[in-house]
Specification:
Layout lengths: L34 E2 L7 E2 H4 E4 L2 E4 L1 H9 L4 H23 L4 E4 L8 E4 L3 H21 L13 E5 L2 H8 L14 E4 L5 E5 L3 H17 L6 H15 L9 H11 L2 H9 L8 H17 L3 H10 L7 H8 L3 H8 L25
Parallel strand pairs: 6-7, 7-9
Antiparallel strand pairs: 1-2, 3-4, 5-6, 8-9
Helix pairs in contact: 2-3, 4-6, 6-7, 7-10, 8-10, 11-12
Length: about 350
C-alpha cells in the first residue's frame, strides 16, 4: 500500500481536502524537492536516486529504504519514509502537467490520496469511495485483509490509456506481449494504485479490486489466490453487469482450454500474463475456485494465512482444508481427478507470480 504521511513542517496550504498544487503554475517552474533532510542525519539526495522512464520519475526505493533503516527512532523513520513518498509524488505530478491535482481526504474519511485531472466533485466522490471501500474490504476479508497501522492509499488516475501504459511499462520486461489491464496495484518499494480516466462506474470495480490486493500484500500467497480473492471481493462490492458470454459458454471455454501444461501455468501464475483467452479464463477460474473454497470461512481463512506461492498453496490446502487443489479444479471442470493437475513447482518456468497484476 502506498503509505503516506503529512510530515512535520509541510508547506502551507497542504491541508486535508484541499488541492496541494499551486493553481496555474507551469510544472517546469515548480520548486521540486531535490533532497530530504532529517535533523542530525545525512540528507537523502533525490537528484541522485531519481531515474526517468517514458518521461516519468521513478525513485530508487531500495536506496530510500536503506536511508530510512539508518534511523533509529521508528517515529522518525515513518516521517522520513513519508517525505520520500511525498517528494516522489510531487515530481510525478510535475511530469504529468499543471492540470493534475493532488488531493487528499480527511483521515476520519479514510485518508486516501488522489492524483488526477478529475473535476473537484468527481475527485471528492472517488476519495469517499476509496475510504468506504477499504472499510468494506477489511470487513469482507475478516482476519485476512490487513491495513498497516500508518499510511494512506494513493490512486493515480491518468488521463488516457496511452499515458497509463507508458507509466506501467516501467514495471514490465522490455520484451514480450502482455495482457491489457484497466488498473493495477503496483507493489514495488512504494505501493500505489494506477488506472486510466473513465466513467466513475468503470473505475469503481478497479478500485475495489486493487484495494483488495493492497490489503493482501502482506501475505506471500500465489497469484491464483490473490486474484481470486480480489475478483470475488470486487464483485461483492461492485456487482458486474451481464458479460459477453453466458455461464455455459464460459464453462465450455474452460473445458476446451485447460490441459496438463496450462493448469501448471495457472498454479505458477504465468497464465494470468497470457495475451489470449488464457488471461480471461485464469481470472475466472481463480474466482470460481476461491468461491468454492471460501464457503467455510474459518477453514478458508486459516488456509489463506498459511498459503505460499512456492507451492501454489498446495500444502496449506491439504493441512487446513483437507483438500488437494488439483482435485478441486478437476471436479469444477467435470474432469476425473488427475495427478498431473496437482501443483508441481518442478514443471514451472521461472519464479511463481504473486499476482496483483
Amino acid at each position: 500500500m502506498f503509505k503516506f504521511f503529512r510530515s512535520l513542517g509541510s508547506a502551507p496550504g497542504r491541508e486535508a481536502g484541499r488541492d496541494t498544487s499551486p493553481a496555474g503554475l507551469d510544472p517546469q517552474v515548480l520548486l521540486l524537492p531535490n533532497a530530504i533532510a532529517i535533523s542530525g542525519l545525512p540528507e537523502f539526495m533525490l537528484s541522485t536516486h531519481l531515474s526517468h522512464h517514458n518521461g516519468f520519475p521513478f525513485l530508487d526505493w531500495a536506496a530510500a529504504q536503506a536511508w530510512v533503516d539508518g534511523i533509529g527512532d521508528p517515529t522518525v523513520q515513518a516521517t522520513a519514509w513519508a517525505r520520500c513518498e511525498r517528494a516522489w509524488l510531487e515530481h510525478l505530478q510535475a511530469s504529468l502537467g499543471p492540470a493534475y491535482q493532488l488531493r487528499e481526504a480527511l483521515r476520519e474519511e479514510g485518508g486516501a490520496v488522489l492524483l488526477s485531472t478529475l473535476e473537484p466533485n468527481v475527485a471528492r466522490a472517488m476519495l469517499d469511495y476509496m475510504g468506504k471501500t477499504l472499510q468494506r474490504v477489511v470487513r469482507l476479508l475478516d482476519g485476512v485483509a490487513q491495513v498497516p497501522e500508518w499510511g494512506r492509499d494513493i490512486l493515480i488516475v491518468f488521463d488516457d490509456e496511452d499515458t497509463y501504459y507508458r507509466y506501467v511499462s516501467h514495471y514490465y520486461p522490455e520484451a514480450g506481449e502482455f495482457a491489457g489491464s484497466s488498473g493495477m496495484y503496483i507493489h514495488a518499494g512504494c505501493g500505489h494504485f494506477v488506472t486510466a480516466k473513465a466513467d466513475m462506474r468503470v473505475v469503481e470495480p478497479v478500485i475495489a479490486h486493487e484495494l483488495t490486493h493492497s490489503c493482501l500484500s502482506h501475505l506471500p500467497i500465489p497469484a491464483w489466490l490473490n486474484e481470486g480473492l480480489a475478483v470475488n471481493t470486487e464483485h461483492r462490492l461492485s456487482p458486474p453487469g451481464p458479460g459477453l458470454l453466458t455461464p455455459r459458454q464460459m464453462h465450455d471455454k474452460h473445458l476446451q482450454f485447460w490441459g496438463d501444461a496450462e493448469i501448471q501455468e495457472f498454479w505458477s501464475g504465468k497464465s494470468f500474463l497470457r495475451n489470449d483467452d488464457g488471461n480471461m479464463l485464469s481470472y475466472d477460474l481463480a474466482r470460481i475456485v476461491v468461491a468454492q473454497l471460501s464457503g467455510d470461512w474459518e477453514r478458508f481463512r486459516s488456509f489463506v494465512l498459511a498459503a505460499n506461492l512456492a507451492d501454489a498453496g498446495a500444502a496449506a490446502a491439504a493441512e487446513h482444508m483437507g483438500m488437494e487443489l488439483g482435485a478441486v479444479v478437476c471436479a469444477l471442470l467435470e474432469k476425473e481427478a488427475d495427478p498431473a493437475w496437482t501443483p508441481n513447482p518442478g514443471a514451472w518456468h521461472g519464479v511463481p507470480e504473486q499476482g496483483a497484476f
